[in-house]
Write a structure and sequence with these properties.
The complex is a heterodimer of chains A (169) and B (110). In chain A, 26% of the residues are buried. The longest helix of chain A is centred in the middle third of the chain and has 24 residues. Chain A has 2 domains: 48 residues, no CATH class; 99 residues, Ribosomal Protein S8, Chain: A, domain 1, CATH 3.30.1370.10. In chain A, 54% of the residues lie in helices and 11% in strands. Chain A is mainly alpha-helical and 169 residues long. Chain A has a 3-stranded antiparallel sheet. With 110 residues, chain B is mostly helical. Chain B has one domain. Helix content of chain B is 82%, strand content 0%. Chain B is built from 4 helices and no strands. In chain B, helix 1 packs antiparallel against helix 2 and helix 2 runs antiparallel to helix 3. The radius of gyration of chain B is 19 Å and the shape is elongated. In chain B, 25% of the residues are buried. The mean pLDDT of chain B is 87. Classes of the chains: A mainly alpha (169), B mainly alpha (110).
Chain lengths: 169, 110
């Protein structure tokens, strides 16, 4: 129930912000549309009911701040490589271990790798990610760096599988 | 006034990174290496330009939309990049490496 209300709030909030009109007609239309979407989601049983979904969500802003720093740092390094008179690159394709427990965590780690200039995730599997790096240094940095650890730290605590309790319909 | 200056500096930084990304795409030897400078364009380049545009809009609704564009960009662009690289690898495209480039030079091929 809480998840359904949350989904409604997010949908309605997006409607209001993107429309920018606060007339009763448009507000009611937005509420009806959001309610309809929630109803369809419930009927198709697509609602994510995991309780630990927002486990350590308060750590995300700190991670994003750190990631932004990494992105700018590596953007400068790659820019120097691009503008250097002699192209000094040494690309490598390797697998690096990933310690995330959930799909969401793995997606976060792979996306963080791709967002950081100089490294690019090409395949995601359980426990490892295939990475293409522009230089050996970028690959070494990723391997030794604590990006993997930081993503895992923002992940929710491990949840017990299958909890068919009150929330289940 | 100060906000105006910060805004323009930010847009200039963004424009610089977009330019570098473009030069990088032209200079790199193959698809995979080209994707690295392309990534600069849509993370740092677009990020600084949108940051610089925020105080220019003058309307908080427009500013919120600009911020939302940036958030969506941060979620979608790495997924698109990943899908492209993954598809290229599945299709059997071999990444360019320094070693392979040297042997090709020795053989006299272009």
């Amino acid at each position: 129930m809480l998840h359904a209300v949350g989904l409604f709030a997010v949908l309605f909030g997006t409607w209001v912000i993107l429309s920018g009109h606060f007339t009763p007609f448009l507000l009611i239309s937005g509420a009806v549309c959001a309610a309809l979407t929630v109803a369809i989601t419930l009927r198709m049983d697509l609602l994510d009911r995991r309780r630990d979904f927002l486990g350590r969500v308060w750590r995300l802003p700190f991670y994003w701040l750190w990631l932004a720093g990494q992105i700018i740092l590596w953007a400068l390094i790659v820019s120097r490589k691009v503008l250097a008179p002699r192209l000094d690159i040494d690309p490598v394709l390797e697998r690096v271990p990933s310690s995330q427990r959930s799909d969401l965590g793995r997606v976060m780690y792979a996306n963080s790798i791709t967002l950081t200039p100089g490294t690019l995730s090409t395949d995601v599997r359980e426990g490892e990610i295939e990475v293409h790096a522009l230089t050996q240094a970028a690959m070494e940095d990723l391997k030794s760096d604590d990006m993997d650890r930081r993503v895992s730290a923002t992940e929710a605590a491990p949840h017990k599988p299958a909890e068919p309790t009150e929330g289940e319909r | 006034m100060i906000l105006e200056i910060i805004s323009w500096i930010s847009i200039a930084i963004g424009a610089f990174f977009v330019l570098v990304g473009g030069i990088g795409i032209l200079r790199m030897p193959d698809l995979f290496t080209r994707m690295h400078p392309a990534g600069i364009t849509d993370s740092v380049g677009a990020g600084f330009i949108l940051l610089g545009l925020l105080p220019q809009s003058g309307d908080w609704l427009v500013s919120v939309k600009l911020a939302l564009i940036f958030v969506f960009l941060l979620f979608t662009s790495p997924v698109a990049t990943h899908a492209l690289a993954h598809a290229a690898l599945l299709d059997g495209l071999k990444p360019w490496t320094k070693a392979r480039d040297k042997t090709r030079d020795k053989d006299g091929a272009p």
